[in-house]
Design a protein that fits this description.
Elements (H helix, E strand, L loop, with lengths): L1 H64 L5 H21 L2 H24 L7 H52 L4 H38 L5 H14 L3 E7 L5 E9 L10 E3 L6 H8 L3 E3 L20 E9 L2 E10 L8 H30 L11 H18 L3 E7 L7 H18 L5 E4 L4 E7 L3 H12 L6 E6 L6 H10 L7 E4 L1
Parallel strand pairs: 10-11
Antiparallel strand pairs: 1-2, 1-6, 2-3, 4-5, 5-6, 7-9, 7-10, 8-9
């Protein structure tokens, strides 16, 4: 009886000790969880602030490139940029303040270059270089904060696992008083293996996301960054294949812009899925901007489109790529096994990769628009000097390859200084008439304020003289010079030779 009583008292003391230990663990866990949650919220807010600054910077550049920039709207975008950086400074620590100060100085450098360049400054090389450098830095900082937030989330989950392991150990220790020592050892070993596996998987996930982020920040190529995102998706989800669908340029349907995995069919990239087709999970996810998980592809009639059939695929996840509430594409993940639910880990990492895909799509579109705008003369809509200097060497190379002649010409309109709106109207009228007199293969560019340059493929010197005279006759006071490429000289040497032959009187100079 005394032995039983002693055993009861010992068990009671052990149970109370376990309960006290669990209560202490709960308090510690709640405190650390709150601290980690606050850190996640802070890093997320910093990422959003830098993202808003990047959007405001892009809006400034677009406004600066517009044909009729409005100073008031441009100033509003500048204020929005500064407010976003101010929010980041208030949210961050001393290191964040130094980062904000550096970004502010870079922005002031960009504004200075923009103001110094005058009209059409948004497309000048100096402004474009500063914009691209600042935009890339903002993207890097925002992604760094997102990765830091992901690290915080991962640390929080690891703390929860460790707390759970300690709880099991403490509870098993109490049961040890009743003879369950073997169960304690087994539970401890299982939890440790699970924690180690989760840690290894988490490190792999972060490494895959980091590779995709680095590829996106270091490369503006349309394909490589998207392919890396698909490759990272396959790795973190242990999938058969990942495919990224985006709207095609004609707006006719969705096309495959990138794919990665063990079963990517030949010729998949570039295939277009018409928007009018039915039985497509891709179109359904794109239209609804909602996740779609199909556990059995063979039996679901809503995803019966032949372009979505992947050999060996059993289940698929259709994850829309969303930016500012608008679907920009669809990321499709396929598995060779039946998937009924998506784990929190796969869902979280897939969301991060889909966000990176949206950044890649938006950035590529912005860069394409800015590059196109930087090569067009705003007044006449013709190529500008930058585009002409890029096109002439290419045309000379084609002439050498095809063994055919090519001529270049320059036409100067008198009056170097613009005469307000009247001179602008004269130049636009002339270019409109000249376009009608040229072939589709001919190139006409505004080389300077009152100077125009031409490239005439498959054109002899005699034919080039006739074309130049016909164009020059539309402006009687103009001076024109034509040169036929000799097959040896460079593009700059050809232009220099033609320029040296220009005279101040309305004559037509020509030399072979």
């Amino acid at each position: 009886m005394k032995r039983a009583h002693a055993t009861y008292r010992l068990a009671s003391v052990g149970l109370v000790a376990v309960l006290l230990f669990l209560a202490g663990l709960a308090i510690v866990n709640a405190t650390t969880t709150r601290t980690a949650a606050d850190a996640v919220e802070r890093e997320t807010a910093l990422s959003d602030a830098y993202g808003q600054a990047a959007q405001a910077l892009s809006a400034q550049q677009r406004e600066a490139q517009s044909p009729a920039p409005r100073r008031g709207r441009f100033d509003d975008h500048v204020v929005a940029f500064r407010e976003a950086l101010q929010n980041a400074r208030l949210r961050g620590d001393a290191g964040e303040a130094r980062e904000v100060a550096a970004l502010t100085r870079a922005h002031e450098d960009y504004l200075t270059a923009l103001m110094a360049s005058g009209p059409a400054a948004g497309g000048s090389p100096a402004v474009w270089e500063r914009f691209e450098r600042l935009d890339r830095r903002l993207a890097e900082v925002a992604r760094a904060r997102r990765l830091r937030a992901a690290d915080r989330v991962y640390d929080l989950s690891q703390r929860g696992d460790a707390t759970f392991v300690r709880t099991i150990v403490a509870f098993s220790a109490g049961l040890l008083l009743l003879g369950l020592f073997g169960g304690l050892i087994r539970a401890f070993q299982q939890r440790r293996r699970a924690a180690e596996a989760a840690q290894v998987q988490g490190e792999r996930d972060l490494a895959a996301v980091a590779r995709a982020t680095r590829e996106l920040s270091n490369n503006l190529d349309e394909t490589s960054a998207r392919t890396e995102i698909c490759r990272a998706t396959v790795e973190v989800s242990n999938a058969l294949m990942a495919v990224l669908w985006e709207p095609d340029r004609d707006g006719w349907g969705l096309k495959v812009s990138a794919a990665a995995g063990a079963a990517v069919p030949a010729g998949l990239t570039g295939l277009v899925l018409p928007l009018s087709d039915e039985g497509s999970g891709v179109l359904r996810a794109y239209a609804t901007a909602e996740w779609l998980l199909v556990s059995d592809l063979a039996a679901d009639p809503l995803v019966a489109h032949p372009l979505e059939r992947v050999p060996g695929a059993v289940s698929a996840l259709y994850r829309p790529v969303i930016r500012d509430g608008v679907a920009l594409g669809v990321l499709v993940v396929s598995w060779t096994r039946r998937i009924t639910t998506i784990s929190d880990r796969v869902a979280a990492v897939t969301s991060l990769l889909a966000q990176e895909a949206s950044v890649a799509i938006e950035r590529t579109e912005l860069v394409a628009r800015l590059r196109a705008a930087s090569r067009v003369d705003e007044l006449t809509g013709l190529m500008n000097r930058l585009a002409y200097d890029h096109e002439l060497p290419r045309e000379l190379a084609r002439s050498r390859r095809d063994a055919r002649p090519v001529c270049a010409a320059r036409i100067v309109i008198p009056g170097a200084e613009p005469d307000g709106g009247a001179r602008d109207r004269v130049l636009t009228d002339l270019t409109r008439r000249w376009r009608g007199d040229l072939r589709l293969t001919d190139v006409l560019a505004r080389y300077d304020d009152g100077e125009f340059a031409l490239i005439l493929p498959a054109c002899t010197l005699a034919d080039g003289l006739m074309v130049a005279e016909r164009l020059r006759s539309a402006a009687p006071d103009a001076t024109a010079s034509v040169g036929c490429w000799d097959g040896v000289e460079s593009a700059q040497e050809l232009l220099g030779r033609i320029g040296a032959e220009l005279e101040p009187q309305p004559v037509l100079a020509a030399r072979r």
